[in-house]
Write a structure and sequence with these properties.
Helix 9 packs antiparallel against helix 10, helix 11 packs across helix 12 and helix 11 crosses helix 13. The protein is built from 15 helices and 16 strands. It folds into three domains: about 60 residues, no CATH class; about 270 residues, Rossmann fold; about 110 residues, Arc Repressor Mutant, subunit A (Orthogonal Bundle), CATH 1.10.10. Strand 4 and strand 5 form a beta hairpin. It is of the alpha/beta class and about 450 residues long.
Length: about 450
């Protein structure tokens, strides 16, 4: 039976707590096989017969996905002492080959370990580095991607169909270089795929020709859930995708402490770590990962959600690593709030909060949109000595000094970006008092403090 077109996961569809199966590949012998853990012992098989009677064989070593190194597999299940030692070895490998800040190097090591257990979680973060050419982004992908569970290496030239089909086909870690999508319909579709792929049970749906009748189209669901390690030159324009990423801006490499070219021992060291991480998967893949963990001091729900898998792994390693992860999360949340504070929506929110406070002192409860536009222009538009200036038609122009905004544009931001309800009276559109609580909550989310309002 030729299983070239079969998913890896079909070979382990019969797994239970006492039996686990993974594909392995020995690059020296150019031989693929199954590693099966049964009753605490690992055996290597050329084929497996399922309870249904179906025979499953591993992919051939001549399969292009294996022979061209697109997928990185372990060769055997290699033993290790403790999870702490495995983490230290993983961290040491990362630090030996790519220059990273201490906190992000630790996050990267935890992420590589987490990827071997990813299918036990409900939501995952994406690990992402950004930077100019020559800052080591590709080296980072090679280093971390070689340690991740069934790492699949691709670049920005990958088509949309290849992206979601490959992820569905292999069910591993997608390692994506040059993820700077051009402004096009295809880039929008890829963004949607990445937005869906961080959470389980949100497949991509496509219509396909029925193999038995090419005149009939049938729907098909593609499972795109899984870890993703990404490199790009800039941040994504899509805000939702940005919130799914744990991001590091790569430092400029002036005094190199890491090699420009990977040493001859790189592949063998990476393979040895993958072998130990396979044992790590065998030991822990049936652990309960559904329980939520408290990230002390973290307020943003999405951040708590995507960091939960790393918290589980850090607990296996040690309390100091867990504390380091919490500190990283707190710094990341502070950066997110600073980014929000720099947005046009935050400026509009500030105007709303100030107007609410002023209206209370005057016994008013309505905030008209024209008031918001006037307050914005008074606060954020520099004085051009009375020269008339054009109205803003693009939201990004709001951050440019010297432009006024109209009530219509202010209303668009309030309704579409901040999703605050408005009503209309004889003086135009206004924000009713019932929305004041939501405005206060949004202010907290955007990091606007009471002192900022009072002293503005």
């Amino acid at each position: 039976m030729n299983t070239t077109n079969e998913k890896f996961v079909e070979a382990i569809s019969h797994n239970d707590d006492s039996e686990q199966v993974e594909m392995v590949y020995d690059p020296k012998q150019k031989k693929s096989s199954f590693a099966r853990l049964r009753d605490g012992k690992v055996e290597y098989l050329d084929q497996i017969t399922l309870p249904s009677g179906q025979t499953i064989r591993p992919w051939s070593s001549t399969n292009s996905l294996i022979s061209y190194g697109f997928i990185k597999l372990p060769s055997v299940a290699e033993d290790y002492d403790r999870e702490r030692n495995l983490y230290e070895e993983t961290l040491g490998f990362v630090n030996s080959h790519v220059a990273l800040p201490r906190s992000f190097a630790s996050v990267s090591a935890l992420y590589a370990m987490m990827s071997w257990l990813y299918d036990g979680f409900h939501a995952l973060p994406y690990l992402r580095v950004i930077g100019a050419s020559g800052t080591g982004k590709t080296t980072f992908l090679q280093t971390v991607g070689n340690l991740c569970y069934k790492g699949m290496f691709a670049s920005g030239s990958t088509s949309l169909a290849a992206l979601f089909r490959t992820i569905d086909h292999v069910q591993g870690t997608f390692v994506f270089d040059e993820a700077d999508f051009r402004a096009s319909e295809m880039s929008n579709d890829i963004t949607k795929v990445l937005n869906s792929g961080y959470q389980a049970e949100f497949p991509v749906l496509r219509m396909e020709v029925d193999p038995r009748n090419d005149k009939i189209l049938r729907e098909r669901a593609f499972n795109i859930f899984g870890p993703k390690v990404i490199a790009s030159r800039a941040r994504f324009h899509d805000e939702a995708l940005e919130t799914r990423c744990l991001t590091q801006i790569m430092p400029i490499r002036s005094k190199l402490k890491t090699p420009l070219v990977q040493p001859a021992t790189f592949d063998s060291q990476a393979l040895s770590l993958r072998n130990k991480l396979l044992t790590f998967r065998f030991r822990h893949m049936h652990d309960n990962f559904r329980a939520e963990h408290e990230l002390k001091g973290i307020e943003v729900p999405r951040l708590k959600q995507i960091l939960a898998p790393l918290m589980h792994v850090s607990q296996m390693v040690g309390a100091d690593v867990q504390l380091e992860l919490i500190k990283y999360a707190q710094a990341l949340e502070a950066d997110m709030k600073q980014e929000l504070l720099r947005s046009p929506e935050a400026d509009v929110l500030m105007c709303l909060l100030v107007l609410i406070q002023e209206n209370k002192s005057h016994g008013e409860d309505k905030i008209h949109i024209q008031q918001v536009a006037d307050e914005f222009n008074r606060r954020y538009i520099r004085d051009y000595r009375g020269d008339p200036l054009p109205d803003v038609q693009n939201e990004r122009d709001l951050v440019r000094q010297g432009y006024y905004i109209s009530a219509k544009k202010a209303g668009t931001i309030i309704a579409r970006k901040l999703m605050i309800k408005t009503k209309q009276d004889g003086h135009g559109y206004y924000i009713p008092p019932a929305e004041h609580k939501r405005i206060a909550q949004l202010g907290e989310r955007y990091g606007i403090t009471e002192d900022m309002i009072t002293n503005s």
